[in-house]
Design a protein that fits this description.
heterodimer, A: 208 residues, alpha+beta, B: 89 residues, 55% helix, globular
Chain lengths: 208, 89
């Protein structure tokens, strides 16, 4: 069975900083979470007006994926149905759930309601990059590298994906953390084997 | 009418999070949906909420939606016609 899988790129966004492969991509110290996301959007020079309508979890996912895939010619390397997305977090969509509940005191906001499921972020990423592959969103109390490794390897083993964006994406109030990895079957310069130990180590370092 | 349309443009930008737009980018008669501002069905629901919260107007007939929300001008005309103060008079 083919088991050559590698983390070819990683991206971590947390506490006012964004890193790609452990190197600083952008820093916005002192900004609140919403302002930081908007500043990072401008820094990445993304032209995607729909971004401004998204909830914070989706914004975080869009930005992390943008950094992850930047300069990779990803859509030329893979067919639309070959890229999977497997994400996880601890707070599901609670950040926007609370905001939506607030609007129910007067007139409930349809624009907030549509984000009150955690897997909506997968849809937003898929729409942005035209991915049509397998996807799943899991909610755990804490990061679960062994599960991510097992589930994603299962997708590769059964031939459902040729590459996969996976990891952790959590947002609640002013606390947020993204740690996404791109998993591929070909090794590139800085790639490391896609193992539970390496995933957990990436997550445990401050900047992935 | 001009004052109301200017106010509507500011409210639409704020409520729909159209951060790349300024009020002067929205022309009075330009379509709000599809080829104009590119608004979608969720935005339409938000515009209904806007009418309700800001102007105390409930869109009673769903089929009126496309006509009412065609442009900023048609919205302003509808508000002028259906504002509670006018209805009461």
């Amino acid at each position: 069975m083919q088991r050559d899988r590698f983390i070819t790129v990683s991206c971590t966004i947390t506490a006012g900083s964004a890193y790609k492969d452990g190197k600083p991509e952008f820093q916005g110290p002192g900004l609140n979470a919403a302002a930081f996301l908007d500043d990072l959007y401008r820094h990445e020079a993304i032209a995607y007006p729909k971004f401004h309508k998204m909830d914070h979890l989706c914004k975080l996912g869009i930005l992390a994926t943008e950094i992850l895939l930047k300069g990779s010619n990803h859509n030329k390397k893979y067919r639309e149905d070959e890229t999977g997305i497997v994400l996880s977090n601890a707070n599901a969509s609670l950040d926007v759930d609370l905001k939506y509940a607030g609007t129910m005191k007067t007139v409930a906001s349809p624009a907030l309601f549509v984000y009150t499921l955690p897997n909506i972020v997968i849809g937003e990423i898929a729409i942005r990059h035209r991915f049509k592959g397998e996807n799943a969103f899991f909610v755990f109390k804490s990061f679960h590298g062994n599960f991510i490794a097992g589930y994603v390897n299962g997708l590769f083993d059964t031939g459902l994906v040729q590459c996969c964006i996976c990891g952790w994406l959590d947002f609640l109030g002013e606390d947020y953390r993204a740690m996404l990895m791109l998993v591929e079957t070909t090794r590139s310069g800085t790639a490391i084997p896609f193992t539970a130990d390496n995933i957990n180590e990436l997550n445990n370092t401050n900047h992935g | 009418m001009d004052k109301l349309m200017a106010q509507l443009k500011r409210q639409i930008i704020e409520r729909l999070n159209l951060k790349d737009l300024r009020p002067e980018n929205i022309t009075d008669d330009a379509p709000l949906f599809v080829e104009g501002l590119g608004l979608d069905s969720i935005d339409a629901l938000e515009l209904i909420v806007l009418l309700q919260q800001e102007y105390d107007i409930k869109l009673s007939r769903a089929e009126d939606g496309p006509k009412v929300f065609h442009s900023v001008r048609t919205m302003a005309e509808y508000i002028t016609e259906h504002s509670p103060s006018k209805t009461a008079s």
